[in-house]
Known about the structure:
By secondary structure, the protein is α/β, with parallel strands linked by helices. Helices cover 38% and strands 17% of the residues. The strands form 2 sheets. An 8-stranded mixed beta sheet has the order 10-11-9-12-13-8-14-15, with helices on both faces. A 7-stranded parallel beta sheet has the order 3-4-2-5-6-1-7, with helices on both faces. This is DEAD/DEAH box helicase. Its EC number is 3.6.4.-.
Amino acid sequence: MEATYEAPAAPFLPIWQRSGFTKPSPIQQQVYWPLKKGGPVLGLAATGTGKTLAFGLPLLETLQPGQQLQLLILEPSAELVMQVRNVLRQYAQVIDLKIQGIVGKANPKRQQEQLKEHPEILVATPGRLLELIQQRQIKVNLVETIVVDEADSQLDPEHLDATREVIASLPADVQTVLMSATEQPIFEELSKWFGYEFERFDTRESDRLQQKIKHEFLVVGNHQKAEMLKRLQRGPISGKNALVFVKNLGSARTLYKTLSFLNLRVGLLLGDESSQKRQQIMQQFRQGKLTYLITTELAARGLDFAELQFVVNYDLPQTLISYTHRAGRTGRMFREGTVLNLGNEHDRRNLQKIVSAQFELKTVYFIEHKLQTERPKEIHHEEASEEATVEKPIVAEPITPAKRKTHKKNRLRNQKNKGKHQNK
């Protein structure tokens, strides 16, 4: 029987401790020894619970410096490639391993030059990686392990073929590791798609019990949401910042213009912009130069803002999976966080039905610059409009047409006939 995993290997320990860790998270403990044994693993854990280090540290311990490419890590976006590379690079360096990120929008010549250094670890998006494998710029004959991170996304019908094509290009005995925050139907039939069984580890329930994330619903009309963001930045979000989720790119750009007009410190993080611009915006947000960062679920998926305390669902998610990934941007590594959902009473009831299997929403009210769970007492209309957010229907009074003043027209023909009528 293996010893319980209590801390990383000695070379990694100082870095791990400087990052603020005192003990491994549940998913880190459960997958450590199975990963080192080399078998297929499926790891399910709540967002923000250290999945990168859960697969990264035990696999780094199995690699040999100077033996070319041995570990592949697939990520669904360029930002996640850079994020995972940066997290693991500091650990890899202390044991003389080289790690490189491969993304589609980067300079191809620069990537090819870096590949000449023969890194033992590659973090890549599937499309660009396949191109380089087919061009024989990357040799995969010595790859021992492939990690498919955000597997719920990379194994969905839209991306499954590309992911399987990468795996098919590797040696037949490669170790396959899948990591995800949410369940997918394909996870129940992995043997059908991959030809072998996966050892499954699911810590999501215990993760949720340890998390300190509040799930709140603020009742506000759709046309009042932008103004509410302005009021919130003078209240509970004052001195902090929030990631604001909308439904699509058009909504993101519209809200950005609205909040800019309201003189709020706001940024825009979209998937159709250059990687360099996205990195600049995220850096500004992490440094506290922006109060609000508007984004979509796809653009922000998996991104780590370690100290983020607020997520605002400006447009509400339509599925539990969507809500889970949005909520996972706050309360990272069991810190405190708040998911604030905006909408009317009908929206609140619908969202509670969607998330009831895992989350309970608490209705809150914005009173005296604070979010409170106690419903406001009866107050004057002037105060209600300024402090409370419970909407009252506005009923227009019927409009009574004004009576027109009648007057006799002084027509020329009447003047001509006037004398004639009088003489008769």
